[in-house]
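Tokens in:
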């Protein structure tokens, strides 16, 4: 019987670590360009590993999503916390929306993540839940300050921001910062000082999530 010594085990561990790093690097790029439904087979091929090796490291798509997006989700929560701590409620609100818009504009996977539910025990989903709670608090705060129109609902803000970013998706290769112009127009529409009565009530939250995740 041959017993593996330390020198024979180390290369295997190093190979496994290298494989994992390549998978993560490729998955980050693929999710960023193609969204969360990017082909895992294509990720494995580009990383130079078998699909079995990918699953050895990440048994589910959700596990790979966690590896790629947990840090970004945490960054979005920190942005909301900073917005709530801002001395000027409106400026805090604006800075948070710009942060969220930039994350979505530069990463299609993050855009998908904002509107897709992961298993409740996934760390990313827990962070998202925290972020959503903070976002509700942020909306309430800026409305209480009289800066955000009172008839705007949290689903209005989320849907309009998402749709603004998605609407400019196909032209960002030529104009990568064009989303900023459209978000600026959107923000002016949210100001209470320029508000006119809205003709319809806000959309129910689950309907918004369904619309955002519907493939056309």
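Residues out:
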């Amino acid at each position: 019987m041959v017993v593996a010594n330390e020198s024979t085990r180390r290369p295997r561990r190093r190979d496994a670590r290298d494989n994992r790093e390549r998978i993560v690097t490729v998955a980050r790029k693929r999710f960023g360009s193609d969204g969360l439904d990017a082909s895992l087979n294509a990720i494995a091929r580009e990383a130079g590993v078998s699909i079995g090796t990918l699953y050895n490291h990440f048994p589910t798509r959700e596990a790979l999503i966690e590896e790629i997006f947990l840090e970004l989700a945490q960054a979005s929560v920190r942005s909301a916390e900073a917005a709530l701590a801002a001395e000027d409620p409106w400026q805090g609100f604006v800075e948070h929306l710009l942060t969220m818009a930039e994350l979505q504009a530069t990463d299609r996977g993050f855009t998908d993540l904002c509107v897709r539910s992961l298993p409740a025990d996934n760390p990313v989903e827990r962070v998202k839940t925290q972020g959503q709670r903070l976002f509700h608090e942020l909306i309430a705060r800026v409305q209480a300050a009289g800066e955000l129109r009172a008839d705007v609902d949290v689903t209005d803000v989320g849907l309009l921001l998402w749709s603004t970013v998605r609407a400019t998706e196909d032209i960002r290769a030529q104009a990568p910062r064009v989303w900023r112009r459209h978000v600026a127009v959107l923000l002016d529409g949210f100001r209470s000082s320029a508000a006119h009565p809205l003709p319809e009530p806000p959309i129910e939250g689950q309907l918004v999530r369904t619309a955002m995740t519907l493939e056309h």
